[in-house]
What does this fold into?
Amino acid sequence: MPKTIVQTQDIQLDLPPGGLQLNDGKVLTEVTVAYEAYGTLAADGRNAIYVCHALTGDAHAAFYHAEEDRDPGWWDELIGPGKSVDTDRYYVVCANILGGCKGTTGPCSINPETGRPYGTAFPLITVRDVVQVQKLLLDQLGVPELYAVIGGSLGGMQTLEWAVRFPDYVKRCICVASGVSLSPQALTFDIIGRSEIESDPNWAGGDYYDKSAGPAAGLSRARQIGHVTYLSSASMAIKFGRDERASPYPGQSSLFSTNFQIESYLSHQGSKFVKRFDANSYLYISRMMDMFDLVAEFGSIAEAFRDVKSKFLIVSISSDWLFPPGQQLDIVENLVAARKNVSYFQIDSAYGHDAFLLEYETLGRAVDAFLNGADPATVNGSGNLVDRDLICEMIEPETRVLDVGSGGGDMMLSLTKQRNITGICLDLGFDEIVECMSKGLPAIQLDADEGLKRIASDAFDCVLLNQTIQQLHSALDTIRHMLRIAPACVVGFPNFAYYRCRLSILLGRLPVSNTLPFEWYETPNIHLVTVDEFRQLCRQNDIHIADIRFLAETVVGRLLIALGGVNLGSERGLVKLTRA
Amino acid sequence: MPKTIVQTQDIQLDLPPGGLQLNDGKVLTEVTVAYEAYGTLAADGRNAIYVCHALTGDAHAAFYHAEEDRDPGWWDELIGPGKSVDTDRYYVVCANILGGCKGTTGPCSINPETGRPYGTAFPLITVRDVVQVQKLLLDQLGVPELYAVIGGSLGGMQTLEWAVRFPDYVKRCICVASGVSLSPQALTFDIIGRSEIESDPNWAGGDYYDKSAGPAAGLSRARQIGHVTYLSSASMAIKFGRDERASPYPGQSSLFSTNFQIESYLSHQGSKFVKRFDANSYLYISRMMDMFDLVAEFGSIAEAFRDVKSKFLIVSISSDWLFPPGQQLDIVENLVAARKNVSYFQIDSAYGHDAFLLEYETLGRAVDAFLNGADPATVNGSGNLVDRDLICEMIEPETRVLDVGSGGGDMMLSLTKQRNITGICLDLGFDEIVECMSKGLPAIQLDADEGLKRIASDAFDCVLLNQTIQQLHSALDTIRHMLRIAPACVVGFPNFAYYRCRLSILLGRLPVSNTLPFEWYETPNIHLVTVDEFRQLCRQNDIHIADIRFLAETVVGRLLIALGGVNLGSERGLVKLTRA
It folds into this structure.
């Protein structure tokens, strides 16, 4: 296949009268933006996706600059015709950020006041300023709203800033491996990195552009420190171990050098980086990243997200220690608490933070499902849920429901269609989350035991837990959490006192049936329960049973239920609980 | 209480003729060692404990140097009269390491050949050299053997070197938060740190001792990087968060400085360190730590530990990312595989690597139990184990047994006393591990599901799993692992088909009894089993039942068993399995 060739374009922004007012009060009178655009803007302008790049990225997100280029743009695996961010379908824009050194105005640009490069005369910038420039660019390109904004790391911070600052403009927000602020640990590596550059004599207070040498040694070491934070301990162990090279990397040798490959690799990464990046840009952008803090600005994450309107897909990486998964879960928790539309999954990867540039199989499937998910009203659910109608009956229409252990979302789909319910699916499986999103249902990938703890009180009107309670470690804690999260919950469970179970036990065999289909040594059903004992548990713990239904698929079972022998006749129970 | 005042003493080592031959072939003709000693060497000399310090530590491990000192020695919480390393009982020695700058010969010492400080003329040293010097010191102090050697981090590496190099001399080895080598990730921080120092113009090729300024800036940044690796992300978040100071730390201010407390804290740590440590010592010792690698030296950890004779206590810290717990588990696995006497536990702490200098409650209890544990032959076990004698009968005498889910070791104690068995206890609880060690039984703190996977094939003659299988996630996997680890295993389990259980179920209640004492929603017994189904599982999976016993505490139960109704009459089953 021939390579698609694209070019980075420069555009002079039409600034408001008086210039671009920055967050800290300073003004830029001229701003040039280097950007790339792929695909075609629809007539109604509603198909635009903005891509935010990370710390040292640029506008070249996809395709090739020249036929002879070996490497395409940095997110080419994700963006292109027929790819997750489908350029046949969407108009995709990516620009170098303000403060950068890849074409957009930054410290190495000419200061119109002096005719010389800004250097440290460039104002301190914020993520807010960066996004403001992106908005001006999109205005100028005639984009009336964003179908989606997507980015990872510092790019993820920009997506959050977009959603918070322009709630009506942004319809979907995909935030990968990022957070509402950097952790103190992550800050320290940036702080030390900047100190490297500033203490390099060749930095010369930032005024090195017309000198013979810049702060290459300091910038190289800053990059080396940064680079370690993008990898994981496991990926470094796999990639390098403690293997040695025949000889050290040229220029690296000293009495205390080692021959470890990792030492050569780091030297090489540092040297390569120095050739492509400006030290002052590194100082400005890394400090900007350090200062980004939606909590400090709004008082809390909840307050920051109060007025957002977009749908969110939050993505974490299991081995990311620069933005560990807890930071993305903080975002998810707060969006759920604010009753927003949020999906979440974790990329299970050894690659560390860098996984957002590597794990395209997982990331691509999820981004595809999220961007291109159907309207739930038009989807037909699969599977034959025997208790579907009963559950629909037990849940109030037009409410917000959390379905714990949702699987692929078939029950939620029925609730959406039959009862006009909006809700969120919660499941442990990645495939299930993707299936939910592809049906247009928001879905969160979490273990039920852990997940319920993370969801705020009163975030929902009802929690559904069907055929899952027997697999959880503490049923009582689970019920308590459900009734904290919502004033009502519906629980469905297999009844171990069903007459067929009793007969089996009487004959000395643990029951294996449709409802209990596993052998004893492999069953995920770790807590067996009976209708009577479930009722007793509720009684003893002041949990109010508002409604209870009994299901049996055998004639004998139904007869026993009709005669009042529900503990004997029910194959499963369906209970609606409310706060006492 | 008045402070106990101690002094660091200097001793000129009696070197072999021709001087001290170092690992790399070079020779030191004079070696001075700075050491402290507490307590009294016993007449038989068998009560000496050697304490190994970490990267930047010194000989001052305990007590005070002067009445006015605010801080005692670095491990004072652990060492002293009545403390875990009891100076009323043991003769405790700690010395500054070779290459150091706290009194022992190092790069800042006078080179007898030139009359000037060595600087980089000092030879590259290894942990082996460091331990060799410690051995010469102990010889000179008249210590015929070490009751124990103990150390954390680089000190832990020294304890391993001691055990490997002097197997007859070292009776006990306590290795805390350390490993057989540094991980590639940990290496990188050292590599960058050394590059900081070497690229500081004031380092001057290491020849800065008579200059007005040394490489303070480089050493300070190296320390800052190192310091981050001693903390955990969680502890930094707790201690500093993203809080700001009123003003930056003096001398730290620049355009790109932040007011974050962590930035001031790091600057302060760097400056403080520069006053107390020599840059060349830092280069030599950090490189020595990087190069320590028992695997590279011996081919494998197993080979390195082949001839060790000491008892081991290996300690990990849950949040340590410099020496993550997997590294200590590697040591434990290999010692178990080599049929050595090894105990292990994990300090559950948010403090990161530094926890070995902070978590004295946990560390102290375990070190106390390990050092001062009784002779099992003299201990009386508690508890009334109904199946004690049956189990003793089923296990061959004079063999090596792993007791999975051992609790406080009562069963192992009986096996030791009645059957002359040696073995290792495995339990998840820290209290249980301490109880085992205090009875003189080696004990490993691991989850049974996870722990069995980590134990090498044929590391034991028999594995005992009593009243635990019903709490594990996969009984079949567990049995397979047990028969991989040993040619035989003994499994005891509650029989869910016991007639009283059946009656209970028949009445629609899940059974609660002595053997099954939990309510359904909180029971740890997640996989119920019956005698018949256990036998069936074995049959279907080619697992040979070499012996089976049935226990009942009721007359009816015993009668039923006598009549052949074992599945109905047994309250519990006891099965000996062997490879098919």
Notes: The first strand of chain B starts at residue 9 and ends at 12. Chain B touches chain A through 78 residues (CB under 8 Å).
